[in-house]
Amino acid sequence: MATTSNPLESELQTLQQQAQEAIATVPNLEELEQLRINYLGKKGQLSQILRGMGKLSAEERPRIGSLANEVKEALQASLDQQKASLQTAQIQAKLAAETLDVTMPGVSRPLGRLHPLNSTIDRVLDIFVGLGYTVATGPHLETDYYNFEALNIPPDHPARDMQDTFFLADGRLLRTHTSPVQIRYMESHEPPIRIVAPGRVYRRDTVDATHSAVFHQVEILAVDKGLTFTDLKGTIKEFLRQMFGEELPVKFRASYFPFTEPSAEVDVQWQGKWLEVMGCGMVDPNVLKAVGYDPEVYTGFAAGLGIERFAMVLHKIDDIRRLYNSDMRFLSQF
Ligand code: DAH
Protein backbone atom coordinates (compact mmCIF):
# COMPACT_ATOMS: atom_id res chain seq x y z
CA MET A 1 0.00 0.00 0.00
CA ALA A 2 1.45 3.34 -1.09
CA THR A 3 1.90 5.81 1.70
CA THR A 4 0.30 9.09 0.97
CA SER A 5 2.78 11.82 1.36
CA ASN A 6 2.01 14.33 3.99
CA PRO A 7 3.00 18.05 3.84
CA LEU A 8 4.74 17.69 7.21
CA GLU A 9 6.89 14.94 5.82
CA SER A 10 8.23 17.10 3.02
CA GLU A 11 8.68 20.02 5.40
CA LEU A 12 10.79 17.79 7.62
CA GLN A 13 12.85 16.61 4.68
CA THR A 14 13.42 20.15 3.45
CA LEU A 15 14.39 21.22 6.94
CA GLN A 16 16.89 18.40 7.26
CA GLN A 17 18.45 19.17 3.90
CA GLN A 18 18.77 22.90 4.50
CA ALA A 19 20.01 22.45 8.03
CA GLN A 20 22.67 20.00 7.03
CA GLU A 21 23.97 22.27 4.30
CA ALA A 22 24.10 25.18 6.70
CA ILE A 23 25.83 23.13 9.37
CA ALA A 24 28.41 21.80 6.94
CA THR A 25 29.49 25.27 5.84
CA VAL A 26 29.27 27.19 9.12
CA PRO A 27 32.64 28.90 9.70
CA ASN A 28 32.86 29.05 13.49
CA LEU A 29 31.56 27.72 16.78
CA GLU A 30 29.45 30.76 17.60
CA GLU A 31 27.47 30.54 14.39
CA LEU A 32 27.16 26.79 14.81
CA GLU A 33 25.50 27.35 18.15
CA GLN A 34 23.14 29.81 16.50
CA LEU A 35 22.18 27.13 13.97
CA ARG A 36 21.48 24.64 16.73
CA ILE A 37 19.13 27.08 18.44
CA ASN A 38 17.55 27.91 15.10
CA TYR A 39 16.77 24.32 14.19
CA LEU A 40 16.60 22.31 17.39
CA GLY A 41 15.93 24.94 20.04
CA LYS A 42 12.65 25.13 21.95
CA LYS A 43 11.31 27.74 19.55
CA GLY A 44 13.31 26.37 16.65
CA GLN A 45 12.10 25.26 13.26
CA LEU A 46 11.71 21.60 14.19
CA SER A 47 9.47 22.43 17.13
CA GLN A 48 7.40 24.64 14.89
CA ILE A 49 6.85 21.84 12.39
CA LEU A 50 5.95 19.43 15.16
CA ARG A 51 3.31 21.80 16.40
CA GLY A 52 1.31 20.80 13.30
CA MET A 53 1.25 17.14 14.43
CA GLY A 54 -1.94 17.70 16.40
CA LYS A 55 -3.86 17.82 13.19
CA LEU A 56 -2.60 14.49 11.94
CA SER A 57 -4.67 11.33 11.82
CA ALA A 58 -3.98 8.56 14.32
CA GLU A 59 -2.23 6.39 11.67
CA GLU A 60 0.00 9.17 10.43
CA ARG A 61 1.07 10.52 13.75
CA PRO A 62 3.51 7.72 14.71
CA ARG A 63 5.10 7.72 11.26
CA ILE A 64 5.66 11.47 11.18
CA GLY A 65 6.68 11.33 14.83
CA SER A 66 9.41 8.84 14.18
CA LEU A 67 10.49 10.71 11.05
CA ALA A 68 10.80 13.87 13.16
CA ASN A 69 12.93 11.95 15.60
CA GLU A 70 15.20 10.73 12.85
CA VAL A 71 15.59 14.26 11.53
CA LYS A 72 16.37 15.49 15.00
CA GLU A 73 19.00 12.81 15.60
CA ALA A 74 20.56 13.36 12.20
CA LEU A 75 20.82 17.08 12.80
CA GLN A 76 22.22 16.57 16.28
CA ALA A 77 24.85 14.22 14.84
CA SER A 78 25.81 16.75 12.18
CA LEU A 79 26.05 19.49 14.80
CA ASP A 80 28.30 17.33 16.99
CA GLN A 81 30.53 16.38 14.13
CA GLN A 82 30.88 19.95 12.90
CA LYS A 83 31.54 21.15 16.43
CA ALA A 84 34.38 18.67 16.82
CA SER A 85 35.98 19.61 13.54
CA LEU A 86 35.69 23.36 14.23
CA GLN A 87 37.32 22.84 17.62
CA THR A 88 40.18 20.91 16.07
CA ALA A 89 40.64 23.63 13.47
CA GLN A 90 40.67 26.26 16.20
CA ILE A 91 43.43 24.44 18.09
CA GLN A 92 45.44 23.98 14.90
CA ALA A 93 45.15 27.69 14.10
CA LYS A 94 46.24 28.62 17.60
CA LEU A 95 49.23 26.31 17.45
CA ALA A 96 50.24 27.68 14.07
CA ALA A 97 49.92 31.27 15.27
CA GLU A 98 51.98 30.64 18.40
CA THR A 99 54.79 28.73 16.76
CA LEU A 100 58.15 29.78 18.14
CA ASP A 101 60.93 30.26 15.64
CA VAL A 102 63.89 29.10 17.66
CA THR A 103 66.26 30.06 14.86
CA MET A 104 65.37 33.76 15.14
CA PRO A 105 68.22 35.90 16.52
CA GLY A 106 67.60 37.00 20.14
CA VAL A 107 67.15 40.54 21.43
CA SER A 108 70.47 41.31 23.08
CA ARG A 109 70.56 43.20 26.35
CA PRO A 110 73.97 44.64 27.10
CA LEU A 111 75.38 43.47 30.44
CA GLY A 112 75.93 46.10 33.08
CA ARG A 113 79.24 46.38 34.89
CA LEU A 114 80.64 47.66 38.16
CA HIS A 115 81.53 51.33 38.41
CA PRO A 116 85.32 51.72 38.78
CA LEU A 117 84.80 53.13 42.29
CA ASN A 118 82.88 50.04 43.36
CA SER A 119 85.34 47.64 41.77
CA THR A 120 88.20 49.48 43.50
CA ILE A 121 86.41 49.24 46.87
CA ASP A 122 85.83 45.53 46.23
CA ARG A 123 89.50 45.04 45.47
CA VAL A 124 90.61 46.80 48.65
CA LEU A 125 88.12 44.80 50.75
CA ASP A 126 89.22 41.53 49.14
CA ILE A 127 92.84 42.15 50.04
CA PHE A 128 92.10 43.03 53.67
CA VAL A 129 89.64 40.17 54.07
CA GLY A 130 92.47 37.98 52.80
CA LEU A 131 94.63 39.41 55.62
CA GLY A 132 92.00 38.41 58.21
CA TYR A 133 89.99 41.63 58.44
CA THR A 134 86.19 41.84 58.86
CA VAL A 135 84.07 44.33 56.88
CA ALA A 136 82.26 46.93 59.05
CA THR A 137 80.10 49.95 58.20
CA GLY A 138 78.60 52.96 59.95
CA PRO A 139 76.03 55.74 59.33
CA HIS A 140 76.66 58.66 56.96
CA LEU A 141 74.84 61.00 59.32
CA GLU A 142 77.06 61.24 62.40
CA THR A 143 77.15 63.00 65.72
CA ASP A 144 79.90 65.41 66.63
CA TYR A 145 81.03 62.88 69.24
CA TYR A 146 81.76 60.03 66.80
CA ASN A 147 83.05 62.17 63.96
CA PHE A 148 85.32 64.39 66.11
CA GLU A 149 85.39 64.19 69.89
CA ALA A 150 85.94 60.49 70.42
CA LEU A 151 88.66 60.73 67.77
CA ASN A 152 90.55 63.19 69.95
CA ILE A 153 89.36 66.25 68.01
CA PRO A 154 87.83 68.55 70.70
CA PRO A 155 85.51 71.45 69.69
CA ASP A 156 88.17 74.09 69.04
CA HIS A 157 90.78 71.80 67.52
CA PRO A 158 92.26 73.30 64.32
CA ALA A 159 91.94 69.91 62.57
CA ARG A 160 88.22 70.66 62.29
CA ASP A 161 88.94 73.43 59.79
CA MET A 162 90.17 70.96 57.20
CA GLN A 163 87.09 68.83 57.72
CA ASP A 164 84.30 71.37 57.51
CA THR A 165 81.15 69.66 56.31
CA PHE A 166 77.38 69.79 56.01
CA PHE A 167 75.64 70.24 59.38
CA LEU A 168 72.02 69.65 60.34
CA ALA A 169 70.21 72.13 62.61
CA ASP A 170 70.31 69.55 65.45
CA GLY A 171 74.13 69.48 65.37
CA ARG A 172 74.51 66.21 63.48
CA LEU A 173 76.66 66.24 60.36
CA LEU A 174 77.49 64.31 57.23
CA ARG A 175 80.57 62.38 58.29
CA THR A 176 83.84 63.85 57.05
CA HIS A 177 85.66 60.52 57.16
CA THR A 178 85.12 56.82 57.86
CA SER A 179 87.11 57.04 61.13
CA PRO A 180 83.92 57.22 63.29
CA VAL A 181 83.32 53.57 62.33
CA GLN A 182 86.43 52.80 64.42
CA ILE A 183 84.74 54.21 67.53
CA ARG A 184 81.38 52.57 66.88
CA TYR A 185 83.00 49.19 66.31
CA MET A 186 85.30 49.36 69.35
CA GLU A 187 82.38 50.41 71.57
CA SER A 188 80.56 47.19 70.75
CA HIS A 189 83.51 44.77 70.49
CA GLU A 190 86.48 43.68 72.56
CA PRO A 191 90.03 43.33 71.18
CA PRO A 192 91.53 41.71 69.20
CA ILE A 193 89.96 43.75 66.40
CA ARG A 194 90.70 43.85 62.69
CA ILE A 195 88.19 45.74 60.56
CA VAL A 196 88.01 47.28 57.11
CA ALA A 197 85.22 49.87 56.71
CA PRO A 198 84.27 51.27 53.29
CA GLY A 199 81.94 54.21 52.74
CA ARG A 200 81.04 57.62 51.38
CA VAL A 201 82.24 60.78 53.12
CA TYR A 202 81.44 64.48 52.78
CA ARG A 203 83.47 67.66 52.98
CA ARG A 204 83.16 71.30 52.10
CA ASP A 205 85.94 70.86 49.55
CA THR A 206 86.50 72.91 46.42
CA VAL A 207 86.19 70.60 43.45
CA ASP A 208 89.25 70.20 41.23
CA ALA A 209 91.04 67.39 39.38
CA THR A 210 91.88 65.58 42.64
CA HIS A 211 89.19 66.83 45.07
CA SER A 212 85.45 66.30 45.42
CA ALA A 213 82.95 67.30 48.12
CA VAL A 214 81.62 63.75 48.20
CA PHE A 215 84.10 60.93 47.97
CA HIS A 216 84.86 57.44 49.26
CA GLN A 217 87.19 56.09 51.89
CA VAL A 218 88.13 52.75 53.33
CA GLU A 219 89.12 52.73 56.99
CA ILE A 220 91.42 50.13 58.51
CA LEU A 221 91.67 49.39 62.23
CA ALA A 222 93.62 46.76 64.13
CA VAL A 223 93.75 46.62 67.94
CA ASP A 224 95.53 43.89 69.86
CA LYS A 225 98.18 43.29 72.52
CA GLY A 226 101.66 44.25 71.28
CA LEU A 227 100.90 45.83 67.89
CA THR A 228 103.68 48.22 66.77
CA PHE A 229 104.44 50.59 63.91
CA THR A 230 106.23 47.69 62.22
CA ASP A 231 102.91 45.84 61.97
CA LEU A 232 101.28 48.92 60.47
CA LYS A 233 104.02 49.40 57.90
CA GLY A 234 104.16 45.71 56.99
CA THR A 235 100.38 45.56 56.58
CA ILE A 236 100.24 48.69 54.41
CA LYS A 237 103.17 47.59 52.24
CA GLU A 238 101.65 44.14 51.72
CA PHE A 239 98.32 45.75 50.84
CA LEU A 240 99.95 48.14 48.34
CA ARG A 241 101.97 45.29 46.83
CA GLN A 242 98.79 43.29 46.23
CA MET A 243 97.01 46.36 44.93
CA PHE A 244 99.61 47.77 42.53
CA GLY A 245 102.29 45.09 42.16
CA GLU A 246 105.96 45.36 43.14
CA GLU A 247 107.02 48.14 40.79
CA LEU A 248 105.01 51.12 42.02
CA PRO A 249 107.22 53.38 44.19
CA VAL A 250 105.71 53.96 47.67
CA LYS A 251 106.76 56.52 50.29
CA PHE A 252 105.89 56.84 54.00
CA ARG A 253 106.01 60.47 55.16
CA ALA A 254 105.66 61.70 58.75
CA SER A 255 102.38 63.52 59.32
CA TYR A 256 99.86 64.46 61.97
CA PHE A 257 96.37 63.22 62.77
CA PRO A 258 94.68 63.86 66.15
CA PHE A 259 93.59 60.20 66.44
CA THR A 260 97.00 58.62 65.75
CA GLU A 261 100.43 59.03 67.33
CA PRO A 262 102.77 58.74 65.53
CA SER A 263 101.09 59.43 62.20
CA ALA A 264 102.17 59.05 58.60
CA GLU A 265 100.94 59.65 55.09
CA VAL A 266 101.57 57.27 52.24
CA ASP A 267 102.31 58.56 48.74
CA VAL A 268 102.51 56.61 45.49
CA GLN A 269 103.90 57.68 42.13
CA TRP A 270 101.18 59.02 39.82
CA GLN A 271 101.78 60.80 36.54
CA GLY A 272 105.38 61.60 37.45
CA LYS A 273 104.63 63.01 40.90
CA TRP A 274 103.83 61.77 44.40
CA LEU A 275 100.11 61.41 45.11
CA GLU A 276 98.91 61.02 48.70
CA VAL A 277 96.63 57.98 48.90
CA MET A 278 96.24 57.36 52.63
CA GLY A 279 96.80 58.53 56.16
CA CYS A 280 97.77 56.12 58.91
CA GLY A 281 99.33 55.78 62.33
CA MET A 282 99.26 54.14 65.75
CA VAL A 283 95.89 54.66 67.45
CA ASP A 284 96.21 57.53 69.95
CA PRO A 285 95.83 56.35 73.59
CA ASN A 286 93.06 58.94 74.06
CA VAL A 287 90.99 57.17 71.38
CA LEU A 288 91.43 53.82 73.12
CA LYS A 289 90.44 55.42 76.42
CA ALA A 290 87.31 56.95 74.84
CA VAL A 291 85.97 53.46 74.12
CA GLY A 292 87.04 52.01 77.47
CA TYR A 293 90.14 50.08 76.32
CA ASP A 294 93.22 50.19 78.54
CA PRO A 295 96.05 51.74 76.42
CA GLU A 296 98.59 50.09 78.77
CA VAL A 297 97.31 46.70 77.61
CA TYR A 298 96.29 47.31 74.01
CA THR A 299 97.82 49.14 71.08
CA GLY A 300 96.46 49.55 67.59
CA PHE A 301 97.06 50.95 64.16
CA ALA A 302 94.67 52.62 61.76
CA ALA A 303 94.62 53.92 58.21
CA GLY A 304 92.22 55.75 55.93
CA LEU A 305 92.43 55.35 52.16
CA GLY A 306 90.92 57.61 49.52
CA ILE A 307 89.23 55.31 47.05
CA GLU A 308 89.03 57.86 44.21
CA ARG A 309 92.78 58.30 44.35
CA PHE A 310 93.31 54.54 44.20
CA ALA A 311 90.95 54.22 41.25
CA MET A 312 92.82 57.04 39.49
CA VAL A 313 96.20 55.41 40.00
CA LEU A 314 94.96 51.95 39.05
CA HIS A 315 93.26 53.06 35.86
CA LYS A 316 95.44 56.09 35.00
CA ILE A 317 92.49 58.47 35.25
CA ASP A 318 93.51 62.12 34.88
CA ASP A 319 90.58 63.85 36.60
CA ILE A 320 88.48 62.77 39.61
CA ARG A 321 85.36 64.36 38.08
CA ARG A 322 85.24 61.72 35.36
CA LEU A 323 84.23 59.25 38.08
CA TYR A 324 80.98 61.13 38.77
CA ASN A 325 79.83 62.13 35.29
CA SER A 326 78.05 58.89 34.31
CA ASP A 327 79.49 59.21 30.83
CA MET A 328 79.14 55.79 29.23
CA ARG A 329 82.04 56.43 26.86
CA PHE A 330 84.23 56.66 29.94
CA LEU A 331 82.55 54.04 32.15
CA SER A 332 82.36 51.31 29.51
CA GLN A 333 86.16 51.19 29.42
CA PHE A 334 86.28 49.40 32.78
N1 DAH B 1 90.38 60.18 58.67
C1 DAH B 1 91.51 60.76 57.95
C2 DAH B 1 91.00 61.73 56.90
O1 DAH B 1 89.93 61.57 56.42
C3 DAH B 1 92.29 59.68 57.29
C4 DAH B 1 93.01 58.84 58.27
C5 DAH B 1 94.27 59.15 58.67
C6 DAH B 1 92.39 57.74 58.80
C7 DAH B 1 94.97 58.39 59.57
C8 DAH B 1 93.07 56.96 59.74
C9 DAH B 1 94.37 57.31 60.11
O2 DAH B 1 92.52 55.88 60.29
O3 DAH B 1 95.01 56.56 60.99
O4 DAH B 1 91.72 62.60 56.56
Automatic annotation (TrEMBL):
Record text on cofactor binding: Binds 2 magnesium ions per tetramer.
Localization: Cytoplasm
Record-level GO BP terms: phenylalanyl-tRNA aminoacylation
Domain Aminoacyl-transfer RNA synthetases class-II family profile, residue spans: 117-314
Keyword Magnesium: yes
InterPro entries: aa-tRNA-synth_II (IPR006195), aa-tRNA-synth_II/BPL/LPL (IPR045864), Phe-tRNA-synth_IIc_asu (IPR004529), Phe-tRNA_ligase_II_N (IPR004188), Phe_tRNA_ligase_alpha1_bac (IPR022911), Phenylalanyl-tRNA_Synthase (IPR002319), tRNA-bd_arm (IPR010978)
EC class (word): ligase
Keyword set, alphabetical order: Aminoacyl-tRNA synthetase, ATP-binding, Cytoplasm, Ligase, Magnesium, Metal-binding, Nucleotide-binding, Protein biosynthesis
Enzyme Commission code(s) on record: 6.1.1.20
Any one GO CC term of the record: cytoplasm
Reaction it catalyzes: tRNA(Phe) + L-phenylalanine + ATP = L-phenylalanyl-tRNA(Phe) + AMP + diphosphate + H(+)
PROSITE patterns (alphabetical): AA_TRNA_LIGASE_II
A molecular function (GO) term: phenylalanine-tRNA ligase activity
Cofactor(s) essential for the protein: Mg(2+)
Family affiliation: Belongs to the class-II aminoacyl-tRNA synthetase family. Phe-tRNA synthetase alpha subunit type 1 subfamily.
Quaternary structure, from the entry: Tetramer of two alpha and two beta subunits.
Name of protein: Phenylalanine--tRNA ligase alpha subunit
Lineage: Bacteria, Bacillati, Cyanobacteriota, Cyanophyceae, Oscillatoriophycideae
